[in-house]
Amino acid sequence: MSDLQAISLSPIVPVALTIAGSDSGGGAGIQADLKTFAFHGVHGTSALTCITAQSTMGVTRVDGLPVEAIAAQIDAVVQDMRVQAVKTGMLLNREIIAAVVERVQSLNLRNLVVDPVMVSRTGAQLIDDEAVTLLRDVLVPLGAIVTPNRYEAQILSGLQINTLDDMRAAAQRIHKCGVSGVLVKGGGMAGELRGVDVWFDGDCLETLRTVTVETRNTHGTGCTLSAAIAANLALGQDPLTSVKNAKNYVTEALQFALEIGQGPGPVGHFFPYLTEHRRLNYKSSP
Ligand SMILES: Nc1ncnc2c1ncn2[C@@H]1O[C@H](COP(=O)(O)OP(=O)(O)O)[C@@H](O)[C@H]1O
Ligand SMILES: Cc1ncc(COP(=O)(O)O)c(N)n1
Fold it and tell me: Which residue numbers delimit the Pyridoxamine kinase/Phosphomethylpyrimidine kinase domain (predicted)?
């Protein structure tokens, strides 16, 4: 039997669903999520929440989709396939968050990874204040894992975050809102804390360190990380193992981040695994 036949006859192909926005530049959002799912050998499905006109230079326009269209996409996938893990990304506004919460609850979606996309790594708020409150009070508590960056963790915890101890305190405070596992990400921290994450699940408080990658091409790191966590959960890994595997994957993808466009380029989702010959034909980050 050929490898191809073996794959198509395989009885269980894990399925993951991303509920997120589109990034026309292909580095973050749905595009990053589907590449990440594919890399992990997980079938990727998607419910689009909004369309951003975006590049490495920034976002020039955002159009939200009607909530009925978002709910219908989720229903279509879940009614047909066994979805083992779900991640949420950019949910844009109150109405969209409420619609997603309603579907997550009524379809009893498990293994939910909430990437609380609210503030960019540079500190710019991406969704309005009312949406922030709803996300914090209603969606985050439904999550198996929530993955705030430095600024999002400040909003969710109400604490200022400047040190590793602050990250630890924030993870513990956010855990109190009902989510099972909290990963406070350190991409927006300064100095040696850049790229250091903190995990708390009620029992275990762990600092996760990888090498710090010296690159400006970090577009899509958060989306890629949360999608990789969802992929690992879909593959049957426990939450902490999923987080550790995902962090290692993001670190490798950062090491092969792409010098594409005029702003911060996207991480290289498949680039660590291209053959040496093909890799040499691309310019990777320094
Ligand atoms: N320069 C870096 N070196 C190593 N890891 C990094 C670096 N920048 C970000 N990361 C990692 O990428 C993941 C995403 O974090 P972050 O960039 O803070 O998220 P977001 O994109 O949501 O702002 C985290 O695991 C973080 O530690
Ligand atoms: C549609 C969309 N969703 C999410 C992000 C955040 O991206 P990052 O992973 O760099 O935080 C983005 N820039 N665009």
Answer: 23-267
pLDDT in tens, 56-88: 998 899 999 999 999 999 999 999 999 999 999
Cα–Cα distance measured from residue 201 to residue 183, given in angstroms and rounded to the nearest whole number: 9
Q: Which of 221, 244, 247, 251 is catalytic?
A: 221
Total structural domains in the chain? 1
Asked if the interface predicted TM-score (ipTM) of this complex is over 0.95, the answer is yes
**Residue 247 predicted with pLDDT over 50:** yes
Contact criterion met (CB below 8 Å) for 188 and 197: no
Is residue 159 assigned to a domain?
yes
Distance, CA 141 to ligand 1 centroid (Å)? 23
Ligand 2 pocket member 265 (CB < 6 A):
no
Percent of the chain having pLDDT more than 90? 82
Which residue's alpha carbon is at the smallest distance from atom 2 of ligand 2? 29
- C-alpha dihedral over 43, 21, 152, 214, to 10 degrees? 70
Kindly report the CATH number assigned to the domain that includes residue 142: 3.40.1190.20
pTM exceeding 0.90:
yes
Closest ligand 2 atom to the C-alpha of 50?
1
- Is residue 215 flagged as an active site residue? no
pLDDT at 119: 78
Side chain identity, residue 127: I
Higher pLDDT, 241 or 58: 241
**Residue-number span of the structural domain to which 187 is assigned:** 15-266
SS3 263: coil
In a domain, residue 278? The reply is no
Question: Nearest 10 degrees: CA dihedral of 200, 159, 89, 31?
Answer: -90
Phi, psi dihedral angles at 198 (to 5 degrees): -125, 130
Question: Residue 227 C-alpha to ligand 1 middle, in angstroms?
Answer: 13
**Residue with tokens 């991640």, as numbered in its chain:** 87
